Amino acid sequence: MRPPSTDTTRPRFHQSGNRGRKVGRWALALALCLPFLGSEQLVAQEDPQVIELTLERMVDLTLSRSYRVRRLNLDIQRDQYNLHAERANLKSSVEMDLTVPAFRLTSEPKWNSTLQKNEIVQENTRRWEGELSVRQPVMLFGYPTNGYLSFNNRMYRYNQIDDDGVEDVDYYNRYYISYNQPLFQPNRLKNDLEQAEMNLERTQLEFYGDVVDIVDNVSGDYYDLFEEYFTRDIYLGLTEDLERALGIAQELATVDSVRSIDVDQIQIELANARENVQSAESSIRLETASIKRDLGLADTDSVAFLPVFYLDPVEIDIDQAVDYAMELTPRMRELDISHRNSEIRLEETKSRGGFRLDLNMSYGRERRDEEVDKLWVDPDNSYTVNVNAYVPVWDWGERDARIASSEISIQQSLLRIEEAELQIVSSVRNEVLNVQDRESRTFAMRENLDLAQEVSETSFQRYHTGAITALDLILSLRREADTAENFLDAYMGWRGSLRRVQEMTYFDFERGIPVLERFGVEDRLPSNGLAELRPSDATPAIDPEFDPFKERRRD
Fold first, then answer.
1. Which residues lie below 8 Å from residue 461, measured CB to CB, with a gap of 6+?
2. Dihedral of CA 251/252/258/263: which sign?
3. DSSP result, 460-509
4. pLDDT tens digits, residue range 430-439?
5. Calpha distance 268→270 (Å, rounded)
6. What is this structure's pTM?
7. I want to staple 304 with a disulfide (CB 3.0 to 4.6 A). Which of 8, 131, 439, 506 is the partner?
8. Where are the domains of the chain?
9. Residues 6 or more apart from 516 whose CB is under 8 A from it?
10. pLDDT tens string 31-75
């Protein structure tokens, strides 16, 4: 069989005459429409690209065009803003509350204790009020205490007008320090900050998981195209061998007319082999068109694909693979985040209907006067102390039932963590054993293919001398083609197991680096939430002496 073609510049796809006529009609219509098209479109049509379909290039194109990745980038940006808001909530804030103005002219019934009856009293007031506050959450050793300390200044102008139109104006000013501290309650400042951090981390883990899924899907497409190309090369090699056999048969038939039937037998087999080549070419064309569509390439772009066998043995330590699956993959961390959220919900559940205490204190200076310029002269001391307590007495077991339900949720999260650990250990161990088994089968089939090629070459020599019949030669060539297909199946199975181990562990054992590092995904996303996706130049070693479809020496 002939070796796989390395000429990536020759046309890969051939069009039928009918399709050529359709293309001609489209070309004519396009020529008529060109004056109405923009210059940018013309440049795009005149300068088609040639895309080299390596695995790294395909992953890079997919990630740059993936709607899933773009959506997750937006999710990361959203969670980063939420986290920024929670962190900003732990810093000082300045607030101003204004009432400018509040006019009131109403009549309401009020009790007159002197007359011992209600009387209609009219209220005619004008109020202008403002309060400036500087509010700061109280931090202790870098952690929020759920309390607030504020510095405040309150001023107002209060104008009362009696029935005769006489105005009574009062000014009021108070500057004071206030402290509010909830006790025996969940620390909402701390919990909100922690949940914002966990939400951002979970979104980043989803991003990494989607990247690895994309890598796995693209790898599947890459090796599907790889298999189509080598299947075609198998049939091309069989076709060349049959053409060689046909030449020998024709040469022998000119000497011995009895052997002319060999020519017919080989021609039939050759026609079948050529049909298989055409079928493989059609499969390659369809597979390539599907990949171009998935990668978002233009119809005018062409692709160059050079499949290469990587046959270096891959050493995988089972215990190390299990450790990578526990540490690098997001599954265990996502379960930990879920468990922590369950604990926070339990804290909130315990606070509902439980004992609570709120402590509020303030101290400052105040002054009321009819003239505004005297508000800061000889102010008086002012203070407030409020202790508000909520003591539950009896709720028919509602709070205990809610707490028990939340505790069950925590037990479920712990069971999920334990189950996930067992599943990871079992699945990774089994898949590593599959890699080792399929690797040994691949190398065994490689040796078997070498042997089949030697047998085919010997069969050519024996047929030329008349030691075997044409049918024996055809069977030998078929056996070599079948052996090549079996080798390809074993190799694809081995690559598939390696891909599954890579997906389970997020580690590329061929290159000895994590998958995210291989494809340039930053371990920590940039501040804007957009990942830098760059293909890596690292490639596994290639066996330069092995070619499963090498040409045999012609005598």
1. 555
2. negative
3. HHHHHHTSS-HHHHHHHHHHHHHHHHHHHHHHHHHHHHHHHHHHHHSEET
4. 999 999 999 9
5. 5
6. 0.76
7. 8
8. 95-183+355-391
9. 208, 211, 212, 506, 523
10. 333 333 343 443 444 467 888 888 888 888 888 887 888 888 888
